[in-house]
UniProtKB/TrEMBL annotation:
Name of protein: SRPBCC family protein
Organism: Streptosporangium vulgare
Top-level taxonomy: Bacteria, Bacillati, Actinomycetota, Actinomycetes, Streptosporangiales
Domain Activator of Hsp90 ATPase homologue 1/2-like C-terminal per the UniProt entry, residue ranges: 29-117
Similarity section: Belongs to the AHA1 family.
Pfam assignment, any one: AHSA1
Protein origin, superkingdom: Bacteria
SUPFAM superfamilies referenced in this protein's UniProt entry, alphabetically: Bet v1-like
Length: 205
């Protein structure tokens, strides 16, 4: 698998309204039940995603190690999962919806993240702030479903392959931002900031 080519397997969209909506779609060569199990079975989830704990049922809560937590709002196996996605002291509205559907013998995976984004965060980083993180998650899922080894999340950004992937992801979200009406100058600035956040240049020794 060419990890950077994984960027081209996905379609990205942005709705740039009062609430920001980022959508990521891609097809996997696996049936919906298998993809659903990989996304919701805690034992399998930990093979490609940070550990998730909590009362994992509709109305229950979850916590991702070192990241967001929230409530499980809807769960309709193997097609629909909707959760609140809360991070930080005052996160505002933030929900993630996952939809799976059969397509050409495989599964169409669609992830939609809708959120109130502070203006300073949006002007600084644009959609790549969450988009690159979701691209990394979708990469992890693809590797898991294909039987490939998990990337090391804490060091991936330090590898040449990781930096190329992150740069390509940030640029792809920049194109989605421009397609949604972002100005070229603003897009370029947010792409540069997002890339530097996810793959900072190493300090000279």
């Amino acid at each position: 698998m060419d990890i950077v080519d994984e960027i081209n397997q996905a379609h990205r969209e942005l709705l740039d309204g009062e609430r920001k909506v980022v959508t990521l779609r891609r097809r996997y060569d696996a049936d919906s039940e298998d993809v659903w199990d990989a996304c919701t079975n805690p034992e399998r989830l930990s093979r490609w995603f940070p550990p998730v704990t909590g009362d994992l049922r509709p109305g229950g809560t979850y916590q991702i190690e070192g990241n967001a937590g929230g409530e499980i709002l809807r769960c309709e196996p193997p097609r629909l999962l909707r959760i609140s996605w809360l991070y930080g002291e005052d996160p505002g509205f933030s929900e993630v919806e996952l939809r799976l559907s059969s397509e050409d013998g495989g599964t169409l995976f669609e992830l939609r993240h809708t959120a109130d984004v502070p203006p300073e965060m949006w002007s600084g980083y644009g959609p790549g702030a969450v988009g690159v993180g979701w691209d990394l998650a979708v990469l992890g899922l693809g590797l898991h479903l294909s039987g490939a080894p998990k990337v090391e999340e804490h060091t991936f950004h330090q590898t040449d392959e990781g930096r190329r992937f992150i740069t390509a992801s940030s640029q792809a979200w920049g194109r989605a931002y421009e397609a949604a009406g972002g100005s070229p100058g603003q897009v370029a600035a947010t792409v540069a900031a997002t890339t530097a956040f996810y793959a900072p240049e190493e300090e000279p020794s």
